[in-house]
């Protein structure tokens, strides 16, 4: 049986986040008020969360600064580059020139999966997106605050076919060591 390396890595990443996030995030969220969501069915909450996330992506697509209001003050955004781990304030600074354009960026959601705590106060999700960079995958954590749903953590990554992983790894290592791509690359 051939193991899908990407799928195995994604499962490991999710398991590690599930094990590490509660331990390391607890101090981060210590001053973040959490309230239980009003009583609703899981289906109703899914609709609300999907609407919220779709609005968040739409805010970026139309360069609306309300995009940042949908994040907790201590939110973390992890982009696709190894240097891109930002606090909310750092992310706002980085994104400022993008939000000065008519569209900061546009992410079209292809699919999304949601899970939540029993009391529905914390929701985590993953989504597959069509972007200008190509197919991306993202995961995030949403908390409920006195101001409503807020994104506390978001991580964006490029979706790379398993058949290209070795080649891509070689290209990244060469780029980092020499600033050049391997010979014969399609640009």
From TrEMBL:
Residues 1-25 form the signal peptide. SUPFAM superfamilies: NTF2-like (SSF54427). Residues 49-161 form the SnoaL-like domain. Keywords: Signal. It comes from the Bacteria. It holds the Pfam family SnoaL_3. This is Nuclear transport factor 2 family protein. It comes from Undibacterium rugosum.
């Amino acid at each position: 049986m051939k193991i899908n390396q990407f799928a195995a890595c994604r499962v490991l990443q999710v398991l590690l986040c599930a094990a590490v996030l509660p331990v390391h995030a607890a101090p981060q969220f210590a001053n973040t008020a959490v309230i239980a969501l009003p009583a609703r069915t899981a289906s109703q909450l899914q609709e609300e969360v999907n609407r919220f996330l779709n609005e968040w992506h739409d805010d970026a697509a139309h360069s609306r600064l309300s995009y940042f209001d949908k994040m907790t003050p201590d939110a973390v955004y992890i982009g696709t580059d190894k240097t891109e781990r930002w606090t909310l304030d750092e992310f706002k600074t980085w994104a400022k020139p993008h939000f000065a354009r008519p569209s900061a960026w546009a992410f079209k959601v292809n699919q999304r999966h949601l899970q939540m705590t029993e009391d529905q106060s914390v929701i985590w999700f993953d989504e597959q997106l069509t972007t200008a960079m190509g197919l991306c995958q993202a995961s995030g954590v949403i908390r409920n605050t006195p101001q409503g749903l807020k994104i506390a953590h978001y991580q964006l990554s490029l979706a790379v076919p398993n058949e290209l992983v070795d080649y891509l790894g070689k290209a990244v290592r060469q780029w980092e060591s020499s600033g050049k791509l391997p010979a014969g690359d399609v640009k």
